[in-house]
Design brief:
By secondary structure, the chain is an all-alpha fold. It has 3 helices and no strands. The longest helix is centred in the last third of the chain and has 32 residues.
Length: 92
Amino acid sequence: MALLQANKDLISTGMKEFNALLNQQVFTDPPVSEEAMATIVKDWVNFYVNYYRQQMTGEQQEQARALEELRQELNALSVPFLAKYRDFLKSL
């Protein structure tokens, strides 16, 4: 069963906003550890999922599927960001 269009639109919006958040990050000195940055990113993902949870439409099962897709997409966006941060730490 396909996701409702309204939920697809919310997922797309959430991904764009999350990507903008990641692109705004400036790595400074002193840096946080790689583990701490991974925790921060995980918290950001949870924040976005909880924010969009309130806006999802449809029955509970539809909302749960849409939120899981959003979480997967945000986690996928965070992988290159964390790799970039890891490279930054190695360059110090």
